[in-house]
Amino acid sequence: MGIEKWRGIDFILAERDKQTVERGYDDEHDEQHDGQQLLIAAGGLLLNALEVYGGQHQGGIEADDFLCEYCDSEEDLEWIRYIVFHRRPDNIEGLAIAGALIAAEIDRLRKEGTA
Fold first, then answer.
1. 14 to each of 18, 23, 103, how far by Cα in Å?
2. Is residue 10 within 8 Å of 95, Cβ to Cβ?
3. Would you give the DSSP letter of residue 52?
4. What are the pLDDT digits (tens) for 7-58?
5. What SS3 class is residue 87?
6. According to the model, what pLDDT value does residue 7 have?
7. CA 97, CA 91: separation in Å to the nearest integer?
């Protein structure tokens, strides 16, 4: 099936495959992110999509303020800011990355037994 016929879930699955296969962000890697970093990164991507691509802000929290509020360490803040702001994913890619990060967090929680 060509990409023009993909549904949203297809983009998320392709991104998660890219994360695990190409970048090596497998379950073992994800276990290191037990401070909700995967969710924080996904939230930052979603807020950034609202700000940049949707023209929506409406007095809500900005993506960088959100990241600064919820990141526990400068190290986490650095890699999450890179994903959200410096990679500059287009709207669909950013949403797919956010979805894949949420899927990774679900897997991590299930493996941990807290889901």
1. 6, 13, 12
2. no
3. I
4. 999 999 999 999 999 999 888 888 888 878 999 999 999 988 887 766 655 5
5. coil
6. 95
7. 10
